[in-house]
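dumping this here so i dont lose it
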């Protein structure tokens, strides 16, 4: 049984590495402001996410719903533990890369919105309401 889980871990790790490569490619597109390439990469991310989810479902079936940490500790298989650690580290790297990409996109959107506000300011005139507050 642990052999099948090892195979699942190896395949899941490959899928996670694909996802990491795609996120790094996305990072490059964000930095170089290649907007149209960013649209195309969304589909790639979704496809690899489905692949990772399929491996996750297979792993859950193979462990019969047991907690993964308990399963690995009870199994006492060093290779299985190493694969688990590698996947955990890879997941942390993926989370960091995703957060970085999101932050860069938000910063660029904020900058773009400020530029648009400077170029095209509001045309209406602010007035005071009956409470003395500015009405916009």
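and the seq i came up w/
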């Amino acid at each position: 049984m642990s052999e099948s889980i090892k195979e699942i871990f190896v395949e899941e790790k490959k899928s996670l590495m694909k996802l990491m490569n795609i996120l790094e490619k996305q990072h490059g597109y964000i930095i170089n402001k290649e907007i149209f390439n960013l649209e195309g990469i969304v589909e790639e991310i979704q496809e690899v996410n489905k692949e990772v989810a399929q491996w996750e479902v297979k792993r859950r079936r193979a462990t019969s719903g047991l907690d993964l940490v308990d399963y690995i500790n009870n199994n006492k298989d060093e290779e299985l533990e190493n694969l688990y650690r590698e996947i955990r580290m890879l997941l942390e790297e993926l989370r960091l890369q995703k957060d970085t990409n999101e932050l860069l996109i938000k910063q660029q959107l904020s900058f773009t919105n400020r530029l648009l506000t400077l170029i095209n300011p509001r045309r209406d005139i602010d007035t005071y309401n009956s409470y003395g507050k500015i009405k916009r």
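Residues 2-97 form one domain.
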